[in-house]
Amino acid sequence: MDKIQDITKVKQYVLSIISDNNIEGCGIMVGDMFITAGHVINKCVNPSIRWNGKKYL
Fold this sequence. Notes:
two-stranded antiparallel ribbon, alpha+beta, 5 strands
């Protein structure tokens, strides 16, 4: 049960990547850094994320 609660706490830091060519991917916020797989970003056209209601490129 503790693992389920831990996942729920972390879930808020997992963000979808938004792109003009509909490439799907996600990453995680760690402090002020966004971490994701390089191949996802490499294939995206104009990738961005939304964090606390603001769009970041």
